[in-house]
Amino acid sequence: MTLPPSRRGRASNGSAPAVASRGEVCARLTAHAAGEVVWLAAQIDRRTRAARTARPSTADGSDTADGTGSVDGTGTALDAAAEPPAVELPPEAAVSGPEPGGGQEVVGAPAPVGPPAPVPARVALDAVARPLWSRAAARPALEASRPIERALRPLRLRLPSARVRLLDEEATAESRAEQGSWLPCFRPAPERWLSLTLVVDSGLSMGLWTRMVRQFEAVLLGSGAFRDVRVCRWADGTGRGRRGGVPGRSDRQLVLVLTDMYAHHWRDGSAHHRLARWAATMPTAVVSTLPEHLWARLPTVPLRTRLRSPGPAAANARWWHRPDDFALPGFPEERQPPWLAVPVVELTPDGVGQWARLVRHERPAEFTMRVLPVSAGGPTLPPRPPSPPQPLSAADHARRLRAQLSPTAYHLAQLGAAIPLNLTILQLLRHTLLPEARPWHLAELLVSGLLLPSPGDPDAPEVPGPARVDLEFATAGLRQELLAEGTRGETARAVRVAFDHLANTVPGATGGALRQVRDLVTDPGGAARLPLDGVRSWLTPVLPALTALDGRHTAAATLLHRRLRYGEEAVPPPAPVETQRHNSDTQGEDFSAPTPDLPFGETPTRPPVEGEAGAPEDDGGNVSVTGVRSDAATTRGDGTRKPPPVWGHVPPRNRAFTGREQLLEDLHRRLQEGTTAVLPEALQGMGGVGKSQLAVEYVYRHLHEYQVVWWIPAEQSQQIRQVLVELARRLGLDVGTGEANTAVPAVIEALRVGEPYKNWLLVFDNAEVPEAVREFFPTNGPGRILVTSRNAQWATAARPLEVDVFAREESRELLQLRAPNLDDDTANRLAETLGDLPLGIEQAAVWLSETGMPADEYLRLFERQAADLMVSDPPPDYPLSVAAAWNVSLDRLQKNHPAALQLLQVCAFFAPEPISRRLLTGVRDAPVPPELAAALSDPIRLGRAIREINRYALARINHTTNTIQLHRLVQRVLINQMPDSLKEQMRNGAHRLLAKGDPGAPSDSGQWQQYGELLPHVLSSRAVESTDPWVRQLVLNEIQYMFTWGDHQGSLDLAKQAYETWHAVDGERAEPVLMAAKLYTDALRILGHYRVAYELDQRTLELMTETLGPEHEMTLEITGMLAWDLRMRGDFTAASELDRQCFDACRRLFGPNDLSTLIVAHRVALNLRLTGDFREALELDRDTHRRKVEELGENALSTLGTLAGVVRDRQEAGEYMGARDQQQDVVGRYEYNYGSKNPTTVSGYRGLAVAERRAGRHAEAIELSAKALRMFRNRYGDNYPDTLAALLAHSVDVRHSGDLPRALELSAQGCAGYQRLFGAAHPHTLGAQVNHAVCLRLLGRGEEARQLNDRLLAGLSDAVGEDHPNTLACATNLAADLYELGEVQASVELSTATLERSRRRLGEDHPASLAASVNLAAGLRLLGRAEEADALHADTVARYTRTLGADHPATAAAAAHRVANCDIDPMPL
Predict the structure, then answer these.
(1) In DSSP terms, which residues pair with 788 in a beta bridge?
(2) Where is the NB-ARC domain (predicted)?
């Protein structure tokens, strides 16, 4: 009888299929049936032996039945000593036909041809020799193994096997009935569809990826997607790599090449030819160990292509492919012979999943992927077009590296500059001195061209591989340049670490000499006694490091160099050596020019200085992306330059920009002196002096020097957040739908670390409040920050560059630029009259240019306007000359174009930000004067008015964005000259125009950009003061938009303002006031102001009940919010009662399947969980989930939330194993439907961490809880309930890992956070301290734990009751405390009472009950009641085994008579 597959078709280790146990089958055999089974088994054995005898040998020479390469159930080699020879692929591919599989018809699936491929022995990989660092714990190289396994699911198909047959019982029985004899009938066994060959590349750099290779093998084996997995090495033809067998032509075979594409065969094209031969007959792809952002530096750059496969598992030769619309130039469209496309896949779930879907071909579809164009014939083609070599100086090479490398890789390069190099030593540096570095940071050093293979010394003695000097810096003098930027401390540590490794690796006297080199760091006087025989290759690279350490170390380096160069007998006297100074930790003189790799003791040639013949042209000291020097400040012809890769929100360039040359030069010099993200540059000055225009001009002149230029309007924090969210998308960051609380921290961090771009410039324009803006600075980042502000306080927060009025020559130049007929004397008089203020000069110049009015007449008009202003009310916040100059133009508009003036007047109440023309078009009912009303309703008249405004330069018209923008001083002039009645009318008109632009969907992420554009105008126009219902609805929608978008503080501020303003006008019972109150409490609640939210919700519920009735939708909604407040206060029983009332009302009013009813049902079950009624909660959650599946679908967010509730109910009820399996499914659904960054997905990670821990899988639990904690912190900060829950879960996982001090530290942080958030008496705060007490006892602080648990037991009894599961858990832990302190009688008495209550509340087999039972048995044994203790202990272990399994850590601990602890995981509120 054939046993059925095990549950879920996987073995216990998750790596391969297995068969079920007899217990799973539950067969009851009679004697007659047993006899039939024996007879049939004999027949099967006879036929199997016959088939084995007739089976031919495999292609690699091993027999599939009993060859030397035996394989276990996972396909992993048990004996891989014998290697199969390499097998070349046939030159041509055959067309495969369809084949069924897995019980379903697989359309177009390839059919097997010939005998099936055997399961080969797995060939062990050559690895870098294991140095000391290999014993240190390292992070996994493959972080997303489980998601990658899930990404391979499309390939999990089965089809009838051609070689394995199973007994067909039904057919056998039918044969017996028809023929009268028992002859067995067989059917093909189902087997997996495809086999896979993983070809691991050879080459020097592949030593970096040994761990990743092994883990990727494990992922492939554990995915269950392949019939077998063969692993072999790339046969490089040099004898250095071990050859593995790549199978010949097969219709069910895949080939993956795992590589970093750095080896020589990727440079000369031979790898492409081999790939072409494989791709001709079977699906072939390259899996890159490098992240995609490094591919551009490879010798072979994958091209962007659109691919389509004709059928499942079709060979690459049959694929259709064409360049993608965004493919780079040089795509080989006409290459002959015809080329094949081999996909290059990043080792991520998305990359692997896209390749799997392409191979699976469930439906015709195109996939955009990166590919290598390969061809089996023709001459070898260079992967890149050859370019002439461009030798770099060491300084230039260092600057280029700073721009190209990530900060971590550059730091590694600085450390490596101090020592002799090979991959082993680089890995050692990474693990020891820079643990945050990853393998691809080391790979950056190789692919960037920084390091090249060292030719080696043929006369050097043989040394072990980990000690050979295999790498050298590409440019002479580059070591010195890199060391100059490091610190003495880091340089010394690098030397000690490297030479300690070398001394332990190299045997004999040479190893002792290397130990002496290490000791030179602490005792440089040993240089004279150092034996040089055999250590020259290691000593030469370290001399620059000794020189950089200064002082006695420099003298030692000089002596050693002379000994190396001249020998021991003829050592010339030392010459003075100039040394470079580190950035910190050192003293000494600056040496401005880099010292090349000259012989020590010789004086380097002095570099030429500026002004001398041959002096190099100064580039300002900054990294230039294009390598082109900055234009001179007077250059005007640079407008055709392309902007940098990331460019946004920069205003159009002012082509009439004049003067400011010295300011521009000073600004450029300051920005290039060094990183300004610590202390930014600030252009500070009064309004109207042209600070923003100066910044715009600087950006356009130097745009080619930056990779990112982003302009940020900074007057309001909401605007900053909105622009940074857009920047996050432009940088390619994974920010989901773009919530501000996720995207803003992500983009700030990306800029801070310089990934993906290091050379960036952020311009914060009109940043008036330093404290409100500085939180958005990427502190200590590699880029530059420029601020423009009128606030003199920036002098303490930045390096201010004062911007004053024009010099007289600059005023005269601008006036004559606009009005060429002005003579110098007249221009000087105008400039003096206008105070040389650039804004006033520009206004006067435009007026004179547009009107042709003589200057004398203009001066008379100007003086009259100034006199009128002085008589009426001189403006306090801007120069009178500006107001007078503008009033000249405004008077002309009043007479000739009143609609244009009125348009300016209504726009004066908007923010000084761009106003979309969409808001001004097609408006027919705005409360504005008739001339403006006609223009707003007629696009032609509106266009005419805007042209008149633009003619006199009274506003900035941007035709690209179709916006109009007024300077803030123009707005103030306009408002100050209007009478109060007109002000009121125009303000109301502005409000109505804004309300017209309300999209009406604040929760829709597709409308967030529009709400973001409206928000600054809503705030500046004081729309909250309007009584118009449409305007008030806009305000409410903006509040809800900010809340949903993630700007919770902005939502709180506007909601509070709306509530207080409307409450004062309309009273507390008005419906808009109640709506604002609800939104206000939502913001209070999410920001942790629970007491204020509770009090306001109480009052709002009373008012809504009186005003709208107890069963109005809004009343029921606020009832649910009040229940939430009660949960936050820890009153779970009162919250449950409120939600139960609301549930009954919704079910009666709307029916059981209405969405409102289902939402409340979810909350009722949540309350039941919090009160400890898990079974009742489970019943309700299952019913609610079933109804949500019917109404919303099984993958709707609300449906998955309830399914997660089902999992928690099962878990708390003691079904640990089933809950873990179901939680894995929930997390998979979250990831697939909503992405890994969605908050519900992150909550799922935390829930899965708890489930894995309770299932006994502590390694998986600690990984998941750390991930959830990191993501919650990045999104919400440390004081958010979900962050604290993840922190508490992680502290428990760390405790289970054995790191008790760290666990205690994390637990203390969690306890303090809960107390700060909820108060000392909240059940969650008490529960967190229960876990803390366990840490105290395990650290030997039993008395502290006992006292804490005494207090907690009393507090939990008062808060949730004596029989609540959390109270019982605390009692169980207190009994353990008493046991450890020797108070055995008290421990037994407490354990007895706790066990009785726990069994009554949770059940006899619940793990919490079993924990109490373990502790009771331990106490009874110490009291001498051995028989009673043994019976209880045996019963408890049996129940543990039945409930959790024999392998569960809790079962093992109970069997070993160890006391049990109970952990409390806070449930969501």
Answers:
(1) 683
(2) 661-818
